[in-house]
Amino acid sequence: MKFFINEADQVVNEGIEGLLTNPKLTRLDNFPEVRVVLRKDWDKSKVAIISGGGSGHEPTHAGFVGKGMLTAAVCGDIFASPSVDAVLSAIIATAGDKGCLLVIKNYTGDRLNFGLAAEQAREMGYKVETIIVGDDIALGEETEQRGLAGTLFVHKSAGYISEEGKSLEEILELVKRVAQNSYSIGLSLEEGHKFQGKEDSRLDESEAELGLGIHGEPGVEKIAVAKADELMETAVEKLQEYTSGAEYALILNNLGSVTPVEMNVLLNSFSKTSMAKNVKLLVGPGSFMTSLNMKGFSISVVKLDEEISEALVATCDPASWFISEYGEASSIKSPELPETLPFESSENASTKKLLKEIAEELIDMKDEINALDEKVGDGDAGSTFASAGKNVLEVIDRLPYAKNWELFISIGRIFSREIGGSSGVLFSLLFTRAGNALKENDDLGKALLSGLDKMKDYGGAKQGERTMIDALQPAFEAIANGESMEKVKSAARKGADATKEITDTKFGRSSYLSEDSLKNVPDPGAEVVARVFEKLAAIK
């Protein structure tokens, strides 16, 4: 694995220093021996809310320090509980007359170190209470339940009611209710990877894990990799063993390396489950309690009542917390756009034959142009032009062939509506402008050059910058000069081949590539143009 780090043993320290660029946060000055992140504005007039544990779960815990959530976070090494002295330091630094609450995830190291620190603080005269959160339902009720992302419901509820000035006893009463009614389950496709030492995966390509922990421990069971809907349904079914028909808030948590679009797919998958109708508030989807870069997600729910709902939706400073109402996807009526084909169909057999054969050529060259584009682009140029060919063939019998200007404008509409990428838009500009020029003056060459000028105006490139313009311009100029199709074909081919030697460009995707990547490789768009003119020249 590759990581954006300096030294593996400094990741936690440097990560905290990065977080502390937030002017509302600070740390104790015996950092990094003791890693305590706390609110800069804390004045000890209210109950302090302290949590923490091993690092590697960011933004938990320090990312949730701020007004309305945690007063302080105590950060240990990766997946390791902070020391007793670190927790005690946080208590002494933040607890005033109203005392403090320690929110502890249910892991042995955290229970021991936070618990001992609490006892030592009490001996020193501090008022300290603890709440242990075990929301992971994967192992069943007969086994100690681990603390997962449901812990954040406790952080938010405690932080809100503390900010309201409530007593430690009132806060403890609320968070006990929150913790007792919070449930979580996780599912992953790949484990997280630590910053040093190569790790072999315990999962093969066909396996996923259900009921995982957040410290790299194996899941409760291995299951088959399946579609997102099926995996989400599996997780929800497990969760529903512990829930009722009440109303819930949901956290959809990214365990580290799931892409944002996949998280939205998972949210859509959740919306198809029977539990979705009971969810009223949504936190996420996003990264809240990660396991380094684990490719997985967890879902956490808490049973709502009026007080818990009020606490969860109240504004707070930490940007890592965001919540909204949850509802069904909806839509509004789309405006009506002009018809794609604005003209009545008309006949010209030879023009129709030319267009049909060009469209088929674009489809036939798909794989070859994609392979070429793999060398200098994103590998889809052939697919884009093939799509253009397919869309033209779909309407081949409905086009206006009798008038070239109507045909050009119609092709421009097809490119603008049906073809993706910049190529579709650029060709739409070219054909639309050329069609309007033909309407005013029936000179094909001048019309095509006028369309090319419009393409260059919006695209920004000009001849000699390794784009399809290098083949289009000489071909159109040859047409404007009344040259034969053989000479037009040759001009286009010469322009396309010249792009093999152009390695210093300022426009288009080639401008992002090195000279070695471009040398002796023609621009895919220019190559397509050359082949189209070669096809035109060959049609009898």
Plain-language structure description:
- This protein is 43% helix and 14% strand.
- The chain contains 18 helices and 13 strands.
- The longest helix is centred in the C-terminal third of the chain and has 20 residues, at 421-440.
- The protein starts with 10 loop residues before the first helix and ends with a helix.
Highlighted features:
540 residues, alpha/beta, seven-stranded mixed beta sheet, six-stranded mixed beta sheet, 18 helices, 13 strands, 14% strand
Short note summarizing the structure:
The chain is built from 18 helices and 13 strands. The chain is of the alpha/beta class. 48% of the residues are buried.
The CA-CA distance between the termini, in Å, is 58 Å
Q: Low-confidence stretches at least 5 residues in length (pLDDT < 50)?
A: none
Average pLDDT, rounded to a whole number, is 93
Query: How many helices does DSSP assign?
Result: 18
The share of residues in helices is 40-55%
Described by strand count, sense and barrel closure, the largest sheet is: 7 strands, mixed
Tell me the layout of helices and strands.
Layout: H1 11-19, E1 25-27, E2 36-39, E3 48-55, E4 72-78, H2 84-94, E5 100-105, H3 108-123, E6 128-133, H4 151-163, H5 168-180, E7 182-190, E8 207-210, E9 221-224, H6 228-239, E10 248-254, H7 260-271, E11 279-286, E12 295-303, H8 306-313, E13 323-325, H9 349-364, H10 366-376, H11 381-394, H12 404-418, H13 421-440, H14 444-459, H15 469-480, H16 485-498, H17 515-518, H18 524-538
Parallel strand pairs: 3-4, 3-5, 5-6, 10-11
Antiparallel strand pairs: 1-2, 2-4, 7-8, 7-12, 8-9, 10-12, 11-13
